[in-house]
């Protein structure tokens, strides 16, 4: 299955009103991108070379550092966190992740920095262009806001609802674009979305009161964007935090058996439970990291163990949540949905 290339983080920087930088935070050339003359994501700025970027992982966390790209006087790091915690089967079962961006301004001018998370209403595969997908904005609690993406799957499989969100505070302003498309026929195109961010560094606040989008048409892709903007003073730093969660309460097997996923025991089966999950993720991720550190630090500091063994020991644990493993509640459900 090909990657869904609309699912990206991008950065927009303005200094002194004249200097502007923008790029998708994905290095390298991508064969699936068409000519930049179209109205889809090929029209975005894919400028990151990646030779000054680094990535390392220690499951359930990973770190990506962008040092001086695209702005030579800005260092950006992204810490990715998944709540996989020993003996905590409630939070370890949650289909959610957190992305903590730390922005350091090494220059002499203050910089306006906007980080944007774009997400396609898609799970890839057969239902990518099948139509009937709907996006809607939401404002949650504790400064959390974003977009819900209701996805209608193919072949009678259970639906999926994504929540993409960021956390607003006195230093960070969050705005959204609930729906944009990839073709000229879209009411707002990917090209127009990118142009708005280059010019303004944010979206219209009134987008939060927009109605749900019309169901997408057959053959079309509908996407959403969440923007978090901040000012970073000279030699200062700022933190911006995003979260992603997805609600797909039922898992259905080929032979007809269906089960509720484990997280539904704590969050229920409503598609809108993904809002509660991103809210909790953005409020609890610091505690999750404390628990992860308590678990991992004694092993990482054990001089009796070789380095390769420590790294492998943790990184291969991904299989417990992503290697064909399904965490379910105890009770099965009627596969017809009754």
What coarse outline follows from CA principal-axis ratios? globular
Determine the number of helices (DSSP H or I, runs of at least 4 residues): 5
Report the sheet-strand fraction.
35-45%
Q: Give the rounded overall mean pLDDT.
A: 92
Strands in their spatial order, largest beta sheet = 3-4-5-6-13-10-9-8
**Oligomer, anyone?**
single chain
Q: Helix/strand/pairing class, anyone?
A: alpha+beta
Low-pLDDT parts are none
Work out the helicity level: 10-25%
**Order of SSEs:** EEEEEEEEEEEHEEEEHHHHE
How many whole angstroms does the radius of gyration measure? 20 Å
Query: Biggest β-sheet: count, sense, barrel?
Result: 8 strands, antiparallel
Total number of beta strands: 16
Distance between the termini: 32 Å
Quick overview of this protein structure:
It is built from five helices and 16 strands. The protein is an alpha+beta fold and 338 residues long.
Task: Give your account of this protein's structure.
- It is built from 5 helices and 16 strands.
- It is of the alpha+beta class and 338 residues long.
- An 8-stranded antiparallel sheet has the order 3-4-5-6-13-10-9-8. Strands 2-1-7-12-11 form a 5-stranded antiparallel sheet, with helices on one face. Strands 14-15-16 form a 3-stranded antiparallel sheet, with no helix packed on it.
- It is globular, with a radius of gyration of 20 Å.
- The two termini are 32 Å apart.
- The mean pLDDT is 92.
- InterPro entries: GH116_N, Non-lysos_glucosylceramidase.
- This is Glycosyl-hydrolase family 116 N-terminal domain-containing protein.
- It holds the Pfam family Glyco_hydr_116N.
């Amino acid at each position: 299955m090909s990657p869904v290339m609309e699912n990206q983080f991008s950065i927009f920087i303005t200094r002194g009103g004249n200097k502007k930088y923008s790029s998708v935070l994905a290095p390298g050339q991508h064969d699936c991108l068409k000519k930049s003359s179209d109205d889809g994501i090929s029209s975005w700025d894919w400028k990151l070379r990646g030779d000054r970027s680094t990535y390392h992982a220690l499951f359930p966390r990973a770190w990506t550092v962008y040092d001086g790209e695209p702005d030579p006087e800005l260092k950006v790091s992204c810490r990715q966190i998944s709540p996989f915690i020993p003996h905590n089967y409630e939070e370890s079962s949650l289909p959610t992740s957190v992305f903590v961006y730390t922005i350091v301004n090494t220059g002499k001018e203050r910089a306006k920095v906007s980080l944007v998370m774009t997400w396609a209403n898609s799970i890839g595969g057969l239902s990518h262009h099948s139509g009937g997908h709907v996006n809607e904005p939401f404002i949650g609690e504790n400064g959390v806001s974003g977009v819900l993406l209701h996805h209608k799957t193919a072949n009678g499989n259970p639906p999926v609802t994504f929540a993409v969100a960021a956390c607003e505070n006195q230093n960070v302003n969050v705005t959204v674009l609930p729906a944009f498309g990839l073709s000229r026929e879209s009411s707002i195109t990917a090209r127009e979305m990118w142009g708005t961010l280059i010019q303004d560094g944010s979206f219209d606040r009134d987008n939060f009161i927009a109605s749900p989008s019309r169901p997408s048409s057959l053959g079309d892709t509908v996407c959403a964007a969440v923007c978090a903007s901040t000012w970073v003073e000279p030699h200062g730093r700022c933190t911006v935090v995003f979260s992603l969660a997805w609600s797909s309460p039922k898992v259905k097997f080929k032979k007809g058996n269906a089960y509720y996923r484990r997280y539904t025991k704590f969050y229920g089966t409503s598609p809108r439970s993904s809002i509660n999950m991103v809210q909790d993720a953005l409020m609890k991720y610091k505690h999750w990291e404390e628990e992860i550190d308590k678990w991992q630090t004694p092993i990482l500091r054990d001089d009796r163990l070789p380095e390769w063994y420590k790294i492998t020991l943790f990184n291969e644990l991904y299989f417990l949540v992503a290697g064909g493993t399904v965490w379910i509640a105890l009770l099965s459900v009627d596969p017809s949905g009754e």
